[in-house]
Amino acid sequence: ALLRKAGLKRAMVSSSSDEGTQMLYAEAPDLIIPSLRPYRMRGELSTWMHDDSVVAMLEQRLAKYRYAAIGEYHIYGKDADLPVMRKVVGLAKKHRIFLHSHSDADAIERQFQQDPSARILWAHSGFDAPDKVGAMLGRYPNLWCDLAFRSDHAVMGRIDPNWRKTFIAYPERFVVGTDTFTPERWYYIGEHANWTRTWLTGLPTDVAERIAYRGPDDFGVWVDADAGIALAHRRLAIVDLSPAGHQPMLSESGRFVLVFNGEIYNHLELREQLVKQGRSPAWRGHSDTETLLA
Q1: Quick check: 186 and 172 in contact, CB under 8 A?
Q2: CA-CA distances (angstroms) from residue 231 to 7, 47, 50?
Q3: Cα–Cα distance between 117 and 134 in angstroms, integer?
Q4: 71-86 pLDDT per residue, tens
Q5: Is 259 helix (H, G, I), strand (E, B) or coil?
Q6: Helices (H), the chain
Q7: Which residues, in sequence order, are bridge partners of residue 219?
Q8: Helix, strand, coil: what percent of the chain each, to 5?
């Protein structure tokens, strides 16, 4: 319910243990994309690469269920060349699935050395700088990057110039997301999704669409070139699902333009008050945004 309310189209999910992922997938197979972690419990985060039994566990789960990836797993530097990690790379190749690797650049390179055809999703973009992320994307065409648990690419809703260059250069190689490593963080998914929609409006439309997986329901831009002002909005329709809720929204007189993110719970009562006072416009739809603009 939290994922749908946030307007997410698909969500790649992993858990420790995998039973949590399977429960989510059974509940929402149209939404959940399962990924298989090599952890039976979170306490194995720093030890799994030394545990031979992990490989057998992965083989059993892969034989029983379908997955899009193995991961997210944590591996750094030369540990990526350990026997267990090499077998994980081999399993991903055998089953033709992604590796979701929480790693430094060194470990990513070592995995590609083991299998140049591997497809790797680099968790958190390695917490690396945008120029280094761009260099890795240029070097490895089968590398994708997620932006989970990062905020340095967009401060106060404005995209960092260096990240902007990287996004424009590789728009199809990034995915957005969040990291729900504790249960409490699930309740921030909607807030994070809205923040993501905000900073995406700072990119060219075609670039934003490719990063956002074409986003929720609608996207609009309003520009006053003479004044040097532009407004953009990516819309998740909640109250009014029709085109009448399109944003940026102009007032009936055309004097005002508005972008609004949120929900006004008593907006129907406010409309009734405007009607009684003789101050209501000719309503075009029933969105709370139009109520606010009136």
Answers
A1: no
A2: 21, 49, 53
A3: 19
A4: 999 999 999 999 999 9
A5: coil
A6: 2-5, 19-27, 53-64, 83-95, 105-114, 130-139, 161-169, 189-200, 205-211, 267-276, 288-293
A7: 234
A8: 45, 15, 40
Residue 234 pairs in a beta bridge with 219
Prediction pTM value: 0.71
Q: Which of 131-140, 150-159, 227-236, 267-276 has the lowest mean pLDDT?
A: 227-236
Long-range CB contacts for residues 182-188, cutoff 8 Å, separation at least 24: 186/2, 187/2
CA 64/CA 174 separation, integer angstroms: 30
Backbone angles phi, psi at 78, to 5 degrees: -70, -15
Residue at 127: amino acid letter: F
Cβ(137)–Cβ(174) below 8 Å:
no
Half-sphere exposure in the Cβ direction for 149 (13 Å, CA) = 14
DSSP codes, 157-199: TEE-HHHHHHHHH-GGGEE------SGGGGGGHHHHHHHHHHH
